[in-house]
Design goal:
Number of domains: 1
CATH topology: Pnp Oxidase, Chain A
Strand content: over 45%
Distance between the termini: 41 Å
Number of helices: 2
CATH superfamily: Electron Transport, Fmn-binding Protein, Chain A
Number of strands: 8
CATH architecture: Roll
Radius of gyration: 18 Å
Shape: globular
Largest sheet: 8 strands, antiparallel
Helix content: 10-25%
Order of helices and strands: EHEEEEHEEE
Length: about 140
């Protein structure tokens, strides 16, 4: 058995990363606002190799307007495996006819608030890793049900 077979960290190919992103709808957006870095949860959709989300006037929109460089992350833990995908890219507010892309996507606000501004993230880089977890403490838990 090669040492690679026992490595608990597995790099994902970019297409695997995009497929993972397409099968999820909730992640975290990291953006700059003035001289601070913010991270917020958002729901999103993927079309081709771009991410889209809806927002309203506020700090997210101001942040991506002032500095388009963003990072976006989606994580998942299932049984003994964890997956993490990170997109680094540039965000832009879509206006006019460009904003109609949202009608083609399964994207609706999760919270009943008015969000009508469409933001697109064009990826410069997408990376992902899958981890084989070793969490022996989980086996020591007592089921109280």
């Amino acid at each position: 058995m090669s040492s690679n077979d026992t490595n608990p960290v597995h790099e994902l190919h970019p297409e695997e990363c995009w497929e993972f992103l397409r099968t999820h709808e909730f992640g975290r957006l990291g953006y700059h606002l003035a001289d601070e870095v913010h991270i917020v949860p958002i729901n999103y959709a993927v079309k081709d190799d771009r991410l889209y989300f809806l927002t309203a006037e506020g700090s997210k929109l101001l942040g991506v307007t002032m500095n388009a460089d963003v990072a976006f992350e989606v994580d998942e833990v299932v049984d003994e495996h964890a997956t993490s995908v990170v997109v680094r890219g540039r965000a832009r507010h879509l206006e006019g006819s460009a904003a109609w892309i949202i009608d083609q996507l399964p994207l609706r606000p999760w919270v009943d608030t008015e969000k009508y501004i469409v933001v697109e993230i064009r990826a410069d880089e997408v990376t992902g890793r899958r981890f084989d977890l070793h969490r022996p403490w989980l086996h020591a838990r007592v089921d109280t049900a």
